[in-house]
Amino acid sequence: MWKATLKGLLSHKLRLISTALAVILGVAFVSGSLVMTDTMGKLFEGLFADVLSGVDVSVRSEVQTPFGGRERVPEELVQTVAAVPGVKSAEGGVAGFAQVLDKKGNPIQNAGAPSFGVSWGRVSDLTPFKIRSGSPPEGASDLALDAATARKYKFKLGDEIQIVALGAAEPFKLVGIMGFGSQDNLAGATISAYELRTAQRLFDAAGKVDGINAAATEGVRADTLAERIDTALEKKYEVITAADSTRETAREIKEGLSFFSTFLLVFAGIALFVGTFLIFNTFSIILTQRTREFGLLRALGATGAQIVKAVLAEAAIIGTLSSIVGLGLGVAFAAALKNVFELIGIDLPDGPTVFRARTAFVSIGVGVVVMLVSAIIPALRTSRISPVAALREVMPPPKSIRIRTIVGLVMAAIGAGVLIWGLNGDTGKGIQLVGAGVGVMFLGIAVMAPVLVRPVVKLIGLPLKTRGAITSRLAQLNAMRDRRRTASTAAALMIGLSLVTFVTIFVASTKASFEQVITKFFKADFIISNDSGEVVPPEVAGLLAGLKEVDVSTEVRRGPIAPDKTEWLKGSGSRQQQAQKFNSFTSAVDPALVNHVLDLGLTQGSVDALARGEVLIHKGRLANESANIVGKTIGLEFLDTGRKEFVVGGVFEAETLPGGFLISLDVFKQNYTKKDTFAVLVKLAPDVTESEGRKAIAKATKPYPQLQIQSKDDFFGEGARQIDQLLNLVRVLLALAIFIAAVGIANTLALSVIERTRELGMLRAVGMTRSQIRSMVRWEAVFIGLLGTVLGLVLGTFFAWAVTQAIEDEAFKHFVVPPISLLVLTVLAALSALISALLPARRAARLNILDAVAAE
Question: What does the alpha-carbon distance between residue 544 and residue 530 come to, in Å, rounded to a whole number?
């Protein structure tokens, strides 16, 4: 049987190449993702272990905030740590946003890589930064800059460089060029360094440091020193060894760069899922064509189990070979991604590509399992044919699809039930339940797809019922003849197109909802924010308020809080956020001015409650949005002042403010030392045009080049562009799934032409021309493609509707179906199916009539 298996495999190798394509692509995504993740982890762990080799223990605050990072600690804590027995040296430092301006005064930004400044450490063993040329920053106006930025923007020692931190741009003198260990910078970031007091002033950290690094005296283990320091400090501080800190920091950076890895894994799953339909069809048709061969083997004594083993052995060999090819492509792809990161300004540490045995096992295992799962049903079906029937090529009549239909309906009903539960239940996991429900419904429809073939194909063929359209009619009948084959071929296209449809509608709905939020709730003419997402200098609001072109200028601040848990308040954020104490945040506005620039959309209470020191709560944070909570008391814990009780003064629905809580600026200033101004909202004076207002604001904020001035249209346009960029990336990757589906159509038609050789010869014998044969095969591809398209459009639209309904509280107010976009998708799907039929149609038309009629 083993020799027969190898011979059967080699005799059909060309037919199986397209089958292997889906596995190759899917495995390439999997292996590429694993290799890239492992490589980045190893590189950054090695880098941090090297640059922090002199650090044994780190001390930091236990408090994490929803903005990322941790609270600062008092600077006097450095002396406490230094006094612990076994500490050789201890030093604290601060870091914060610091943007470098180029020689033309423009902010330097490297494709999303951060711009930050650090304090220069005086203990060389405790700092990761090393001076390459010049000297460390020691004076109040001194600056050191990372070597990569200095080289790229042609800065030289002695140059005056403008730096933007929390306030206006300030001049500094470049006295040193530094590196991060052996690297010229850290993952493309722009890094500047200052002496400690200057850094504390720039980053609003007077008397505080971000954390403390300590080195142990000779003979003291790091874990022993960590225990001693932990005993000497209060419980609100966290003490970890340098090894743990290194792994954690490397992991955080790796996770920040792992968006490519996530995309690869998602689309690996999509490619392999679509590929199962292609593989299933290919094996089904090839095994049907080999019926006599298997009948002869059965007549010679082979059992049905041996037939199954032989077929699965073929599948395992194809899966293994395909997976090995995919594994190699994935490794090459992961290595090439480093160059992609460099092109967008993210420099990764130097080092070899990391390839672990786990990558090979997982990648090859995934490919082989997908191939075996796809081949098992065709193998079992073939083994059940009796030897006599197989030798006579008498195939058993197709089984009823009643059981399959019932199973599909049950799955779809279960999915619908979970979906309804997610939409209407009060579980706090609406989106997860909706996603699970839609997924189960999707599988149910895929299972029962054969029962949909005839009605949908007949519907598609209605416009073609014209006189003389014999080729399209025959193609329609061929598509309906083997419903299982047609359904599984169309299902591959259905999956890809449904995902594209979902993304298209979801993005259109997102943009429409975003536009409605801006139109409904924004009264301001301009929004002033930091171009890098950092805070806005708090003096900007007062500066703009003094302009004659401005009627109202007011700031919006935000800060982390920990609200009391009550029965009428929902939880907040992800599991990771919920594990943090300060897992929510509040906005703050001026009660006297907010109505001029925002419509809060109050459903309960009034804005006057803010002036009384009360709190407003967003309706999306309520367990029951219709419940009256005005007058209730809730505790809010602040980072700087602890827990305070507030009376609930109202409920608002505006989606323009960050956070689920709203307090007055006075209350904010009483409870926060930081001046975290999120944005400044500006209402122009009457009779001042937008152009005049923009010009005046730009002139007044010239010392603050980090600020961006946006009208409502600008604000919407930027958000829409960001959404479209993400959409385009997703579309490119989903196009691979549609490509695999098109290959599946071509493969099915090519094998079908071989299977129907005698039939095609008879059609030619009774007068059908070559062009009509080609037309018939092409029309069959169009019917299959449109079947998948119709099902994909319906499922994708339904999926998008369900998800938008589930997250309506998250500012989704509109469900928009873009007809032009969906029409373009339909045309493209039909064209892809038509193109996939070109080679099979050409082969069918070139069959010799006599040879085809005599074919067995």
Answer: 15
Token code pair at residue 618: 């967003």
Residue, of 598 and 420, whose pLDDT is higher: 598
Residue 602: what are its φ and ψ, rounded to 5°? -65, 130
More confident residue, 547 or 416: 547
Enter the DSSP assignment of 107. B
Cα–Cα distance for residue pair 708/689, rounded to 1 Å: 19
Our CA dihedral for 774, 777, 778, 780, rounded to 10 degrees, sits at 160
Q: pLDDT of 622-635, one tens digit each?
A: 877 778 888 899 99
Average pLDDT over residues 267-295: 72
Asked if the model's pLDDT at residue 112 lies above 70, the reply is no
Residue type at 82 in one-letter notation: A
212 burial type by CB count under 10 A (0-12 exposed, 13-18 middle, 19+ buried): buried
Structure tokens at 600: 């809060």
Query: Within a 10 A sphere around the Cβ of 309, how many other Cβ atoms?
Result: 18
**pLDDT average, residue stretch 782-795:** 84
- Phi, psi angle pair for 740, to nearest 5°: -60, -40
**Nearest-angstrom CA–CA distance, 305 and 308:** 5
What was the pLDDT predicted at 576? 45
CA angle 412, 413, 419 (to 5 degrees): 90
Q: Residues 142-158: pLDDT tens digits? A: 999 999 889 888 999 99
Q: Give CA–CA dist 395/854, Å, rounded.
A: 19
Q: How confident is the model at residue 577 (pLDDT cuts 50, 70, 90)?
A: very low
Q: What tokens does 402 get?
A: 């009643």
Containing H/E element for 560?
A: strand 550-563
pLDDT value of position 85: 92
Quote the tokens at residue 242. Answer: 């340098």
- Dihedral sign from CA coordinates of 774, 779, 784, 788: positive
Non-local (6+) Cβ contacts of 389 within 8 A are: 295, 395, 396
Contact 649, 612 (CB under 8 A): yes
The mean of the pLDDT values for the chain is 80
The SS3 of residue 840 is helix
Pairing of strands 95-97, 142-146: unpaired
Burial status of residue 835 (CB atoms within 10 A of its CB: 0-12, 13-18, 19 or more):
middle
pLDDT for position 787:
84
Tokens of 117: 């400044």
Three-class secondary structure of residue 610 per DSSP = helix
Query: What gap in Å lies between CA 837 and CA 840, rounded to an integer?
Result: 5
Ranking 117-131, 237-251, 279-293, 683-697 by mean pLDDT, the lowest is 279-293
The DSSP code sequence of 367-408 is: HHHHHHHHHHHHHHHHHTS-HHHHHTT-PPPPPPSHHHHHHH
Angstrom distance (rounded) from CA 593 to CA 603: 19
How far apart, in whole angstroms, are the C-alpha atoms of residue 803 and residue 508?
A: 13
Per-residue pLDDT band at 574 (split at 50, 70, 90): very low
pLDDT of residue 77: 92
The set of residues, in sequence order, having a beta carbon less than 8 Å from that of 148 and lying 6+ positions away, is 184, 185, 188, 347
Q: How does DSSP assign 613-675, residue by residue?
A: T-EEEEGGGBSSTTS--TT-EEEEEETTTEEEEEEEEEEE--SSSSSSEEEEHHHHHHH-SS-
Q: Shortest CA distance to 100 belongs to which of 36, 3, 192?
A: 192
Average pLDDT for 42-48 = 72
